[in-house]
Amino acid sequence: MPRILADLSDEERSELYKDFPDYTNPELEQKYGITITSAANAGRRKGLRKTKETRRRAYRGRQLSVNDEKIDPVEEHTLKERVRTLEADLRRQVAKKAWTQELVDALSAQIPSITATPLQPRRVASGTQKEMCLVISDQHGGSHISASESGGIGAYDKQAFLTRAQQLIDAVTQVKQRHDPSVRRLNIFSLGDNNEGRHIYRGQTTEIDWNLAQQLINVPEVMARVYVGLLSSFEEIHVYSVPGNHGRVTFSAKEAVQPTENFDWVITKIAEQLTRTQDRIVWHIPETWFQLVERLGFRFLLIHGDTIRSWGGTPQNAVMRNAAKFFELIQAHLPRELSGRAFHYMCLGHFHTRAWIESTGFDVIMNGAWPGGSMYSARQLKSSSLPSQTLFSVHPEHGVTDLWPIYLASREGLPKVAIDAR
Fold first, then answer.
1. What pTM, to 2 d.p., does this model score?
2. Phi/psi of residue 21, each to 5°?
3. H or E stretch including 148?
4. Beta bridge partners of 292
5. How confident is the prediction for the chain on average, in pLDDT?
């Protein structure tokens, strides 16, 4: 199979550039095993030109080819266009698949110098068959919400991000010790928007505390510390992740990209590397935008929620309509050996509002967010909620039994709307 320019080694490309002026494109094709289009593109990239003698030789070669084989000009043009299209598709697919993994590999090479956590995890005694599930989403690490610009409705920055990470560890630990200290396993449903991103909407660069590079370094380390910190209360932790929309690498949400072309996926892979010495943390990182997780006989559909469209505030009706469609879709594609309902619970984030929605066939668990109120939530949704996440327990007979809001900040600690009485 002919190669493209990207398949050549640095030495081969260097030699190709030297040969370009004196070789026709078919001659370069034969010498280097690349396509004629790739040979021509090599010259364009470097601004190289064929010598006059090379151009004459190429012209004579084309004339002989046409005369000997009697190629129909229309057919020749059609075939060339088809080849160009296939080569372009191939280059795009190779680039899409490779860049996020290359980024993870490059950052992972630096990870041994990073201290994952100063904590010393301790093991806990075995006990009940119940498990706990912690829904983590919409951390928006690197986001900056000004209290003055939001009118006192919200405030968030990198220091708040770090403080709320520790508050999450402390609150989950307290709930577990108070309600059921014998639970061994914690399932973390990571539903995306770990970081803020930088081009999700126009003007976003004025509302970030960390640039994109700093987000990719700091956010996974903070999340790794959260997971390792929770090991002091649980025998084992399993992390299930899906990507959100703020990890998007494109300027437009309408552009079709692979789920792994998402900074949420990159951040989760780096956090996995940071905790690789902790054998009690198990990672489940798919290359798709959803996960179907089964725990103690109950199935949980995990999505971020950004594909659900609604207007006028928290979209309970839109969520339930979409959940019903997801149910039918998954039910139709379940393996034959699996019986029962497609899922019993759907967990999502994105809307920054905690809620429990019941229906006949399944229930929906909506998660809160780390920032709380923001200019967007206040102006567009006319809502603002306390920074929170969701913790619940699963019983092998009854499913979700206990559910606790995990507040990351108190109302007293948040800014207040100023009243001008002058």
1. 0.72
2. -65, -30
3. none
4. 301
5. 82
